Amino acid sequence: MSQVMDNTVQLLFFVLVIIPSAILHEWAHGFAADKLGDPTPRLAGRLTINPIPHIDPWGTLLLPFLLFFLTSGSFLFAYAKPVPFNPLALRWRRYGAAAVGAAGPLANLVVAFGLGLLVRFMDVSAFTVFLSIVVYANVLLAVFNLVPIPPLDGHHVLFSFLPDRFYAFKVWLQRYGFFILIVFLLFLFDWLQPVMGWLFRAATGQFGF
User: Fold this and answer.
1) Mean pLDDT over the full length of the chain
2) From CA 165, how far away is CA 135, in angstroms rounded?
3) pTM of the entire predicted model
4) Three-state DSSP class for 184?
5) Which of 12, 76, 100, 190 is packed most tightly, with the most Cβ within 10 A?
6) What is the rounded distance in angstroms from the CA atom of residue 103 to the CA atom of residue 108?
7) Number of domains in the chain
8) Is residue 144 a contact partner of residue 77, using CB atoms and an 8 Å limit?
9) What is the extent of the structural domain holding 138?
10) Which of the residues 23, 26, 27, 41 is marked catalytic?
11) Burial (Cβ within 10 Å: 0-12, 13-18, ≥19) of residue 186
């Protein structure tokens, strides 16, 4: 019974951390698009820190609970409703989508390294443990979303830099990206652990989490 209670507290605690981090992530996409000349996020009401417009019923609410029970709490993830933007309206036609795509992960890394400084220089306490969880959640969101598989942010970066001769590959990846992502989550996600671990240690100065 005590293990169940501990796991439930862990789930609620992590969800309360990762959902605001995911909302910040999506707001950063909208902010970048707006600054680059695309009013779509602003017109859609997404340039706000109010969580309600950003909540996706599946990704923000159901997914983290489902993953918790499927993985016994070993892996938790959530995402907010993707912010719409029009690449053709961006001032940087070639690399604008890459800038918008990278803005969300960059915002998470700014939070991770900013709070990581507090963890690094404050005495160990319940508060620094909480901050460490926030750092890890933001590192997780940044690294995972930079995987270049649609619909993750990394595919905007990849597509912006791929030459035009790879158009057929882009179409293929767009068509099958969701299924490739499922395979990645099931079998290849551990490849990201060393990167996340290194970023977490770089941010906090700790040797694990």
Assistant:
1) 87
2) 39
3) 0.87
4) helix
5) 100
6) 9
7) 1
8) yes
9) 2-204
10) 26
11) exposed
25 part of a folded domain? yes
What residue has token string 């605001």? Answer: 20
Residue carrying structure tokens 């933007």: 85
DSSP 10-34: HHHHHHHHHHHHHHHHHHHHHHHHH
Query: Where is pLDDT greater, at 189 or 156?
Result: 156
Q: In the chain, pLDDT over 90 holds for what percent of residues?
A: 60
Residue type, 208: G
Asked if 188 and 126 count as a contact pair (C-beta separation under 8 A), the reply is no
Each residue of 32-52: pLDDT tens digit?
999 999 999 999 999 988 888
Determine the average pLDDT of the residues in 89-107. Answer: 94
Identify the H or E element spanning 8.
helix 2-35
- Tell me whether residue 120 is in a domain: yes
Is residue 29 scored above 90 in pLDDT? yes
Residues 6+ apart with CB under 8 A from 182: none
**Which token pair is 155?**
């595919």
Could you confirm whether 26 is annotated as catalytic? yes
Q: What count of other Cβ atoms lies within 10 Å of the Cβ of residue 127?
A: 12
Those residues with Cβ within 8 angstroms of residue 29's Cβ, 6 or more apart along the chain or in another chain:
41, 82, 83, 85, 100, 101, 103, 104, 153
DSSP 154-170: HHHHHHHHS-GGGHHHH
Q: Note the pLDDT tens digit of each residue in 128-149.
A: 988 998 999 899 999 999 999 9
Residue 79 lies in a domain: yes
